[in-house]
Design brief:
The complex is a heterodimer of chains A (about 110) and B (about 110). Chain A is mostly beta strands and about 110 residues long. Helices cover about 0% and strands about 60% of the residues of chain A. In chain A, strand 6 (about 55-60) and strand 7 (about 60-65) form a beta hairpin. Chain A starts with a strand and ends with a strand. Chain B has strands at about 5, 10-15, 20-25, 30-35, 45-50, 55, 65, 75-80, 85-95, 105, 110-114. Chain B is globular.
Chain lengths: ~110, ~110
């Protein structure tokens, strides 16, 4: 079965700094999703990548899918306290389901 | 604009007790899902449904049951609560199979079994 790893497991950055979170798959990626979870709340959909090389941006968050590396990266520019939370990647699985990565916990220090 | 609503938000159970976690969505979505989230483990799929009257097991179904009599509701039942079921439970829904449409999540139910 497909497995997802995320790195780093946790991250603490100073406000204004850039950061990157990676999601690596054990199998070929045909699509990937990024979600954000605020502490104590549900998941909020950020973006969906469907093709190798695809890059999408939402405000100061950019995600890219590298098919060859079986990896996606999520980059945050000029981090703000509002970016704090848990970032999870997910991939479609067996038609109707999704597998999620373990998550990366991000803290932003003002 | 309610989206996916889960109740209760918090609950403490004793070992062996039973309870039902409620999930309701007002978006007329066919697909609904139940996940559990344990620290550092991401989300694990418990059960899912592709429409009223149709349910199927996910990765970790043991100890749980579901029903889907209507499009709106998808309750999750714990029959004999065990400490291993201490977790945060999330319900989600989508209009199509997940690979085309993002899932909408509820805020979760935090369950402790003591």
């Amino acid at each position: 079965s497909q497995e997802l790893e995320q790195s780093p497991q946790s991250l603490i950055v100073q406000e204004g700094k850039n950061l990157t979170i990676n999601c690596t798959s054990s199998k070929t990626l045909y699509g990937l999703y990024w979600y954000k979870q605020k502490y104590g709340e549900g998941l909020i959909f950020l973006m969906m990548l469907q093709k190798g090389g695809e890059e999408k941006s939402h405000e100061k968050i950019t995600a890219k899918l590298d098919e060859k590396k079986q990896q996606s990266s999520l980059h945050i520019t000029a981090s703000q306290p509002s970016h704090a939370g848990i970032y999870l990647c997910g991939v479609p699985y067996q038609y109707d389901k999704v597998i999620f990565g373990p998550g990366t916990s991000l803290s932003v220090i003002p | 604009n309610a989206g996916v609503t889960q109740t209760p938000k918090f609950r403490i159970l004793k070992i062996g007790q039973s309870m039902t976690l409620q999930c309701a969505q007002d978006m007329n979505h066919n697909y609904m899902y139940w996940y559990r989230q344990d620290p550092g483990m991401g989300l694990k799929l418990i059960y899912y449904s592709v429409g009223a009257g149709i349910t199927d097991k996910g990765e970790v179904p043991n100890g749980y049951n579901v029903s889907r009599s209507t499009t709106e509701y998808f309750p999750l039942r714990l029959e004999l609560a065990a400490p291993s079921q201490t977790s945060v439970y999330f319900c989600a829904s989508s209009s199509q199979r997940f690979s085309n449409q993002p899932q909408h999540f509820g805020d979760g139910t935090r369950l402790s079994i003591l």
